[in-house]
């Protein structure tokens, strides 16, 4: 999928393929390192292959400049029961440090907005660590609003297994 969203000659966004698994994992690790939580990453090439290309649990886009990968976004469709329609949840957006500030991150977000509109989705949501001030400033500069009416919750690890395996 070529990207006509920017005036940057040579910039494209394409759907990831199985051959991109090592690149996707590299970007996940770089993003986790940037956010100070690399120790939490459990993803492997095998788990990404299974989740992305066998079970189709998420979609991944690769941003390229003159044929060189410069970033990625990973998203999935969710559903709003209140609205009765789907929306897109952006799991990750990452542009490598040397390519930041060139409009590639904005182009990835706009591309996701176009995907949302073309799929009759109601919105595009994502989370951001509150200490990630550069990213928060970037999102707010685009006009995104910070949600304060929701608190995130999680069940994982042993507790998830305990209840998920109960009879």
TrEMBL record:
GO terms for molecular function: N-acetyltransferase activity. It comes from the Bacteria. Residues 11-165 form the N-acetyltransferase domain. SUPFAM superfamilies: Acyl-CoA N-acyltransferases (Nat) (SSF55729). PROSITE patterns: GNAT (PS51186). The keyword Transferase applies. Keywords: Acyltransferase, Transferase. PANTHER family: DIAMINE N-ACETYLTRANSFERASE, GH14572P-RELATED. Belongs to the acetyltransferase family. This is GNAT family N-acetyltransferase. The lineage of its organism: Bacteria, Bacillati, Bacillota, Clostridia, Peptostreptococcales.
């Amino acid at each position: 999928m070529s990207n006509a969203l920017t005036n940057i000659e040579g910039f494209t966004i394409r759907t990831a393929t199985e051959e991109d698994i090592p690149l996707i994992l590299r970007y996940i690790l770089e993003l986790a390192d940037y956010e100070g939580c690399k120790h939490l990453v459990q993803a492997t090439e095998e788990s990404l292959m299974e989740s992305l290309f066998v079970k189709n649990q998420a979609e991944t886009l690769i941003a390229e400049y003159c044929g060189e990968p410069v970033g990625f976004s990973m998203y999935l469709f969710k559903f709003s029961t209140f609205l009765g329609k789907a929306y897109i949840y952006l799991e990750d957006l990452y542009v490598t440090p040397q390519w930041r500030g060139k409009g590639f991150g904005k182009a990835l977000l706009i591309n996701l907005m176009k995907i949302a509109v073309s799929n009759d989705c109601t919105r595009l949501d994502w989370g951001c660590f509150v200490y990630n001030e550069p990213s928060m400033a970037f999102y707010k500069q685009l006009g995104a609003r910070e949600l304060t009416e929701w608190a995130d919750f999680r069940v994982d690890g042993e507790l998830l297994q305990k209840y998920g395996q109960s009879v």
